[in-house]
Design a protein that fits this description.
211 residues, alpha/beta, Metallo-beta-lactamase, Chain A, seven-stranded mixed beta sheet
């Protein structure tokens, strides 16, 4: 399995001929011209995870691709008819299995209503398991080999992120949800996670990791 970080929370997963795109949001533009996708996965309805301005073009560029989304995402412009991924559901997408876990977005503030959020556990037959949690740190799947780790958000603190990474216990990980921090903040989070967890956090900005 090959994982490419395309900015903020947008991730491209490739295994053989299968290509999945996760969270095409408006903090990243590198996904705008992608073609040949088998499926597009969306964890929740916030625009930094699904960009309503560019979703129609992505659909036109990938007319055969399935859209596998958290239930609330179907209300986003241009996503009528998308396949809903309720927590606990499992789908086949090409050669990969996609399991939806979790259910609710992390608390931003008690006065802000919570929305739905599903993390995606992507498994390759006979291979690894990759976990993209979206915007929540309360679900810990078993057997994760590679973890996408939210670097910074209004809904989490570093102490929570460290405990989440420790609980998942993946051998390797990399930072996502980094569109809100500068280089100093990114480097601080990167260093702390490598120092304080058993997960080897990799720098894959603009690059890919295979395992």
């Amino acid at each position: 399995m090959k994982i490419s970080h395309l900015g903020h929370s947008t991730v491209l997963v490739e295994a053989g001929s299968t290509r999945l795109l996760i969270d095409p949001g408006n903090y990243s533009q590198t996904w705008h011209d992608l073609t040949g996708l088998d499926a597009i996965l969306v964890t929740h309805a916030h625009p930094d995870h699904v960009d309503p301005e560019w979703v129609p073009q992505l659909r036109r560029n990938n007319p055969a691709a399935r859209w596998l989304v958290e239930p609330g995402v179907t209300q986003v412009a241009g996503l009528a008819g998308a396949e809903v991924c309720a927590p606990g559901s499992s789908q086949r997408a090409g050669t990969l299995t996609v399991e939806a876990v979790g259910g609710r977005h992390a608390v931003i503030h008690r006065d802000i209503p919570r929305i739905g959020n599903v993390g995606f556990v992507i498994t390759e037959a006979g291979g690894g398991r990759f976990f993209h949690p979206g915007d929540a740190l309360d679900t810990v799947p078993d057997g994760v080999g590679l973890l996408a780790i939210p670097a910074h958000a209004p809904w989490c603190a570093m102490k929570e992120t460290i405990d989440f990474v420790r609980a998942v216990g993946a051998p390797k990980g990399f930072l996502i949800h980094d569109g809100l921090i500068n280089e100093r903040g990114w480097a601080l989070t990167f260093a702390r996670l490598n120092e304080m967890t058993g997960t080897a956090v990799l720098d894959v900005r603009g690059a890919s990791v295979e395992w």
